[in-house]
Specification:
Layout (H helix, E strand, L loop, with lengths): L2 H26 L3 H26 L4 H21 L5 H30 L6 H5 L1 H28 L14 H21 L2 H23 L7 H23 L2 H25 L3 H6 L25 H9 L3 E6 L1 H6 L2 H13 L3 E6 L9 H8 L7 E3 H4 L8 E5 L8 H4 L18 E6 L19 E5 L2 H14 L1
Parallel strand pairs: 1-2, 1-4, 2-3, 4-5, 5-6
């Protein structure tokens, strides 16, 4: 079969199959039960896309390609094996960054090969065509922003950059606006210039995009990182789609558009869940004010009641209904299997057990769902916020495991609170509330949690896994 036939018939069919697998894979990722199968389908789709691209190129040096794939496979495998569940958001942020810089490098390589090397005297828009020249610039701009923005998000999630707190530069909005306008100007000048003159403008555009990624992310606090990670994921998809236009690859355009659209939809869902504005996310300074936050230390609490596993077990024994609210503390303690064991014991005694899942509990969207699925918690017991909230008033006991801001009544009762208007799980409406936490330290919002001082709330201080093991032992002895 000659190359012309391959490019005209075989490659389009492969690309079509790849696209269909991407769509079905993303669809199945929306449910815990089918997520693993969806991931496998998408992976097969990506393999087909790579094969199609190689067949379309025709004569290529497969040694470099095979070597690169082998190295990438080993690195990816090591990351996947060694990464902890609590570090998954950091890994996702890193992947977003790699995707963004890869798209930018693809666009830059096309520019270098077709313009600088082949037509150094011609104008960029004449050599590439106006549309393709613009997409080259956009891919470099968006890819650079995604790369450095994702690295900053990674460092914030790890607490290595001012412990995840916002970094507010003087006149940051004006600086960001000027740099953004300047980057568009650099791209426009590069498109209109000759190949030899455009190199300077391309370098200026690349540098501007990298700085923009930093400036757009450093003002954002750790509490808002789940939204930022999903937004950066969208950016990486848009950059990939731009790169697809640059190299004329339809499956890359489609795949990038799917990722970009899915990321934006998820970002909007996260914004609603945190009562944030998508516009504020896009322009930076998301969720912060010049006045800063702070507070929430143990010295702010005056009437906190605490107890041990023994007292809590006695109340749990007589409870007809229990809602478990998982949070980041559960993930840190790796206590998902212990909570499943406790739930099974209580269900065997006739207690109705469900789980209240807040959209932004943990460090990334779906964090708690994945964590509990790892312990084979029945998916039917995981109830979203809108479904579970009406149930709290008729619930005997709520067990909060490491969650903080997502159960803070200040969001609905204090209009001056930094989290005012943020939808929360109404745990405070239950008859009894147990909060398992290492200390009275604040959540990512950095504010006092009013729930800790409610008359129906008792704190159980300690590591979530150890506390749950203590509860399991006490329930067995009852």
């Amino acid at each position: 079969m000659n190359q012309e036939v391959i490019q005209s018939t075989v490659v389009p069919v492969i690309y079509l199959l790849s696209t269909v697998l991407f769509i079905f894979g993303i669809k199945q990722l929306s449910k815990v039960r089918t997520a693993r199968r969806g991931n496998a389908l998408a992976a097969v789709g990506m393999l087909l896309a790579i094969i199609g691209a190689l067949l379309e190129l025709g004569v290529v040096d497969y040694r470099w390609i095979a070597g690169g794939m082998a190295i990438g496979t080993v690195i990816g495998l090591l990351f996947a094996i060694r990464v902890q569940m609590t570090s998954m958001p950091e890994m996702v942020a890193l992947f977003n960054g790699f995707g963004g810089i890869a798209s930018a490098l693809v666009a830059a390589s096309v520019y270098w090969a077709l313009v600088v090397q082949r037509s150094p005297a011609g104008k960029v828009y004449e050599v590439l065509g106006t549309d393709e020249a613009i997409t080259v610039m956009l891919s470099i701009l968006i890819g650079g922003i995604t790369f450095t923005g994702s690295l900053i998000a990674l460092f914030k999630l790890q607490g290595k950059l001012k412990k995840g707190q916002p970094i507010l530069l003087p006149a940051r909005h004006y600086i960001t606006f000027v740099l953004l306008v300047g980057s568009f100007a650099f791209g426009g000048l590069a498109v209109a210039a000759t190949a030899s003159d455009s190199v300077v403008w391309i370098l200026a555009l690349g540098a501007g995009s990298l700085i923009l990624g930093v400036l757009l992310t450093i003002p954002i606090g750790g509490a808002d990182m789940p939204v930022v990670v999903s937004l950066l994921n969208s950016y990486s998809g848009i950059a990939a789609s731009m790169a697809g236009f640059v190299i004329g690859n339809p499956v890359l355009i489609i795949a990038g558009a799917l990722v970009g659209a899915a990321g934006l939809i998820l970002t909007q869902i996260m914004c609603v869940a945190m009562n944030r504005s998508l516009l504020n996310v896009l322009v930076g300074g998301f969720g912060v004010t010049d006045g800063g936050g702070g507070g929430g230390g143990s010295d702010e609490y005056t009437s906190v009641t605490s107890c041990g596993p023994e007292e809590a077990a006695m109340i749990l024994e007589n409870a007809e209904s229990l809602i478990i609210i998982p949070g980041y503390g559960l993930a840190v303690a790796q206590a998902q299997h212990a909570v499943r064991e406790l739930a099974d014991m209580l269900k065997a005694r006739g207690t109705k057990v469900t789980y209240g899942i807040h959209p932004v509990a943990g460090r990334m969207p779906g964090h708690m769902n994945v964590l509990l699925a790892e312990a084979d918690v029945p998916y039917e017991e995981l109830l979203e916020m809108d479904v579970i909230n009406p149930e709290f008033k008729n619930t005997d006991v709520v067990l909060i495991l490491g969650a903080n801001d997502v159960v803070n009544p200040a969001a609905t009762k204090d209009p001056t609170s930094p989290i005012a208007g943020m939808p929360i799980l109404n745990a405070h409406e239950a008859r009894s509330v147990f909060v398992v936490k290492r200390s009275l330290s604040p959540g990512y919002a950095g504010i006092k949690n009013e729930l800790f001082e409610y008359d129906n709330t008792m704190m159980i201080f300690g590591d979530a896994k150890k506390v749950l093991q203590g509860l399991i032992g006490e329930v067995k002895d009852l």
